[in-house]
Amino acid sequence: xxxxxxxxxxxxxxxxxxxxxxxxxxxxxxxxxxxxxxxxxxxxxxxxxxxxxxxxxxxxxxxxxxxxxxxxxxxxxxxxxxxxxxxxxxxxxxxxxxxxxxxxxxxxxxxxxxxxxxxxxxxxxxxxxxxxxxxxxxxxxxxxxxxxxxxxxxxxxxxxxxxxxxxxxxxxxxxxxxxxxxxxxxxxxxxxx
Length: 193
What we know:
- By secondary structure, the protein is mainly alpha-helical.
- Helices cover 68% and strands 0% of the residues.
- The relative contact order is 0.10.
């Protein structure tokens, strides 16, 4: 609850601005990119997604179906044309929102139960992560996943069949990402390091 306070949200946004500005300078000098405050450099979009989650959570947390709604929005945001995603890659922010919602809604007891189940089976958490990565690699190699899919971009589909396939790929990508998150949760230390 403290991290959702105005002060905590403000600090997170300042951290995001500092990180994105630092990466903007790095990209300008080392990658030859133009300077732009509207572009999210490297993975700073994730920090912005966390900021958006923290900013909005207090307003949506009491909605009865917030997880299914956020999941549906995550899938539907791919329908927005690519040329509209010009400011801070908001498609990624909407696509990741269900993961933040799940993290807030799942009880600590449930997390610990899944964690113990994975840790009690030697190597299960590591195997889950490796299998998830292998699934992604196999799907990329087979041409099912594209770079656009892995970056949570607009579907850009031309026909109904392509659109249905793109929606299916997004659902599959969300499922595999969920498996990866479960593996990370299982191996994350319980206390401070």
